[in-house]
Design a protein that fits this description.
By secondary structure, the protein is α/β, with parallel strands linked by helices. The protein has eleven helices and eight strands. The strands form two sheets. It has a five-stranded parallel sheet with strand order 3-2-1-4-5, sandwiched between helices. The structure holds adenosine monophosphate.
Length: 275
């Protein structure tokens, strides 16, 4: 991969890069489509990164379908699919990690210790190997977006981090490879997460700025669904991930995680996006 990216740079081709863990769905393809529009060459990586999974079972049950993924990516005009085996990413003796302070232990990091260290490390290796002009990430993983932007700034990557909106199923459920692990009833009922966030956003649009009130709207809607178990609901600043009391001018979002059976789902809604 390193030599291909060096060759592309020599040819002055712009490179758009989409990192994924495979089991691709419309959320991933929206990133690929934008990459195709913005860059001469599109590279997609597929790597289920063991270092970002604390739980072995979660890693083992994570859906994988490389053959189908590669075929779909060809349909979208992707130039290169980079699907390394683990030793290629982490050769013997591997001992260097990237840890983004302050942001990594909150929310998702609290229930998944080490998760963002794994994410930051793999993203750093990928950006350093591929050196893309643009790298595309989904707003679906809002905390990941904040952490990746921070590391790209702090480590001096020239890559522009492009963030694209969450793609949803018809019911409103945010698309996720993990949705495949839900039984049909859970999948249907999981739409409550987006309904709850949408109610809070409607209240925000009508003038509600108090974070506690907004949180309670979300909580009330989700609690009415017996299959859902709330992990957290928080109104936070997108750049610092710090909880806020009142939504002001800075970009803020409501983020949540909830369990349906064994499956943990996350979602969020931006309240005052800039564009
Ligand atoms: P993953 O394969 O889950 O690691 O996701 C790869 C990229 O796709 C990440 O930047 C995710 O945020 C993004 N992504 C996943 N689901 C969605 C979605 N429903 N809408 C938009 N982007 C998504």
């Amino acid at each position: 991969m390193f030599s291909i990216s060096r060759k592309l740079r020599r040819e002055n081709k712009t490179v758009g890069f989409v990192p994924t863990m495979g089991a691709l769905h419309a959320g991933h393809f929206s990133l690929v489509k934008e990459a195709r529009q913005m860059s001469d060459i599109v590279i997609v990586s597929i790597f289920v990164n063991p270092k970002q999974f604390g739980d072995r079972t979660d890693l083992e049950t994570y859906p994988r379908d490389l053959t189908a993924d590669a075929a779909r990516l060809a349909d979208y005009g992707v130039d290169y699919v980079f699907a390394p085996e683990t030793p290629e990413m982490y050769p013997e003796g591997f001992s260097t990690y990237v840890y983004v302070e302050n942001l990594s232990e909150l929310f998702e990091g609290a229930s998944r210790p080490g998760h963002f260290r794994g994410v930051a490390t793999v993203v750093t290796i990928l950006l350093n190997t591929i050196r893309p002009d643009f790298a595309f990430f989904g707003q679906k993983d809002a905390q990941q977006v904040t952490i990746v932007k921070r590391l790209a700034t702090d480590l001096g990557f020239e890559t522009e981090i492009v963030v694209l909106p969450t793609i949803r199923e018809e019911s409103g459920l945010a698309m996720s490879s993990r949705n495949e692990l839900l039984v049909p009833e859970e999948r249907e009922k999981a739409a409550v997460l987006f309904n709850a966030l949408s109610e809070a956003k409607a209240a925000y649009k009508k003038g509600e700025r108090n974070a506690l009130e907004l949180t309670q709207i979300v909580q009330k809607v989700i609690q009415a669904e017996p299959l859902a178990a709330i992990d957290y609901i928080a109104v936070v600043d997108q750049e610092t991930l710090q909880p806020i009391d009142k939504v002001g001018d800075k970009e803020a979002l409501i983020a949540l995680a909830a369990r349906f059976g064994k499956v943990r789902l996350i979602d969020n809604i931006l309240l005052n996006q800039k564009q």
